[in-house]
Design brief:
With 449 residues, the protein is of the alpha/beta class. It has two domains: 108 residues, Urease, subunit C, domain 1 (Roll), CATH 2.30.40.10; 310 residues, Metal-dependent hydrolases (TIM Barrel, Alpha-Beta Barrel), CATH 3.20.20.140. 30% of the residues lie in helices and 20% in strands. It is built from 16 helices and 20 strands. The strands form four sheets. Strands 1, 2, 3, 4, 5, 15, 18, 19 and 20 form a nine-stranded mixed beta sheet that branches. Strands 9, 10, 11, 12, 13 and 14 form a six-stranded parallel beta sheet that branches. Helix 3 links the parallel strand 9 and strand 10. It is globular and about 70 Å long. It binds zinc ion. The site of zinc ion has 5 residues, from loops.
Length: 449
């Protein structure tokens, strides 16, 4: 056992969620390599094992958040991996797929390699940053491919740099990704529709200030339609991120149903919040791109997650200082922190949709792990990484933003009663979080090297 090896552990009598379903009153053994070595019942302690008696508690796989922005390098003043990854542990997340949407973009193998290397000793969770799909990365895609789970493409402008300008450019970029054999993950909102809306409401500031009208449903739906058409034409695997409309999600599930390589995910706020609530929230706390939509979208997206048609949820954690949100609408930053509450938010989503928790937990564990090819993550299975989360699912707590770990120091979910907060978190067998505190040095490793 090397000095950095974790202790072997024996978890006894937990209700175990394996990534898909529950195993009642089960025992889980982990080894000195940080792997799950056995799952069963009536296990006896072996010499050297640390025993965790979990009668009444649930044991879950560490969550995989496939969509966060930690802004390192370049904008560490807003977050950085040290703060962001501590927040991740607070939310039960042990693996993040992270999008660099501030300069420098991840447009070459060398810059991606530098980032992967730089984050060792900083990140408290395992990490897999995406590459960028931009003009400057096209020639690099074959080299980038082995260093990331996918490359990120912006259809329509959001907060970041490097959006696609027109369909011709989109076709060229998707073709380059197809030729390199790399998956594309996409933010879909149509710029032309959003610009037309801006003109339409120019004389009605009370409407122009409604983010759901300013970035309307059709902007997302048409952009998804276009992305699916071009992706299937050129033969690239497309994953549409943070779908906010039921119609957009249905386009994705219908394409998948026709056997096309098209998948998608939504985000917790689209399952929990409506446009009116977002509009009334103080300081533009729920201003986010795509905009938060309507009750029927919320319900429809929840149904698709529950039925397994939308098996991936990512937070789109995008922290800004509150001073950058608390401005007149047009100047308020889009995005908010949420990785720090992912697990309780998934319970809230399951409860809001009167669903058993399994599909909502699957969507932040095995669902994203399978989508992005992390066989060792998101499951409690023999041979998988011992990334584990202990919770008392019924224990509720009112969110206090002052207790959260994001550098931004606030949360749009402040004062909400949530349940299912992580009590203990293990990363590859190391106890890294307990009772609200980060334990030990940053142990995060890159999933690609
Ligand atoms: Zn994002």
């Amino acid at each position: 056992m090397s000095p950095t090896s974790p202790c072997p552990r024996l978890f006894l009598g937990a209700r175990v969620f394996d990534g898909t379903s529950f195993l009642e009153a089960s025992d889980v053994r982990t080894d000195a390599n940080g792997k799950i070595s056995a799952i069963g019942v009536d296990f006896r302690r072996r010499d050297g094992e640390v025993v965790h008696n979990l009668a009444g508690a649930w044991l879950l796989p560490g969550l995989v958040d496939c969509h966060v922005h930690f802004r390192e390098p370049g904008l560490e003043r807003k977050e950085g991996y040290s703060f962001g990854s501590k927040g991740a542990l607070h939310g039960g997340v042990t693996t993040v797929c992270e999008i660099q949407n501030n300069p420098p973009l991840m447009d070459s193998a060398s810059i991606l390699r530098q980032k992967l290397h730089h984050l060792r000793g900083i990140s408290h969770v395992d990490y897999a940053p995406y590459g960028s799909l931009v003009e400057s990365s096209l020639a690099e895609l074959p080299a980038i491919k082995g260093l990331c789970p996918a490359v990120k493409c912006f259809l329509g402008c959001s907060t970041g740099a490097g959006g696609v300008r027109d369909e011709e450019e989109l076709r060229r970029w998707f073709t380059a990704a197809a030729e390199a054999g790399v998956k594309v993950v996409a933010h879909c909102e149509d710029n032309a529709i959003m610009e037309a809306t801006k003109k339409q409401y120019a004389e009605q500031p009370e409407l122009l200030n409604r983010h759901d009208l300013r970035r309307p449903r059709e902007a997302e739906v048409e952009s998804i339609r276009q992305a699916i058409a071009v992706a299937t034409e050129v033969g690239v695997h497309l994953h549409v991120f943070h779908i906010s409309t039921v119609e957009g999600a249905t386009l994705v599930t219908a394409a998948a149903g026709r056997g096309m390589a098209v998948t998608g995910s939504t985000a917790p706020h689209y399952l929990l919040i409506t446009a009116d609530e977002a509009h009334l929230a103080p300081q533009h706390r729920f201003k986010v791109n795509p905009s938060i939509k309507y009750q029927e979208d919320c319900q429809g997206l929840g149904r698709l997650v529950q039925q397994g048609f939308l098996p991936v949820v990512g937070t789109d954690h995008a922290p800004h200082p509150l001073t950058e949100k608390d401005r007149p609408y047009a100047h308020a930053a889009s995005g908010f922190p949420s990785v720090d509450l992912l697990l309780p938010l998934m319970f809230a989503a399951a409860d809001a949709h009167q669903s058993p928790p399994e599909p909502f937990l699957h969507a932040v564990t095995q669902g994203p792990a399978e989508e992005f090819g992390f066989q060792q993550k998101g499951r409690i299975a023999v041979g998988a990484d011992a990334d584990l989360v202990v919770i008392q699912p019924q224990l509720g707590r009112v969110v206090d933003e002052a207790q959260l770990l994001s550098r931004s120091g606030w949360s749009p979910y402040h004062r909400r009663l949530l349940r299912g907060f992580p009590e203990q978190v293990f990363l590859r067998g190391h106890e890294v979080f307990a009772d609200g505190q980060i334990l030990g040095p940053p142990r995060g490793e890159p999933l690609f090297v």
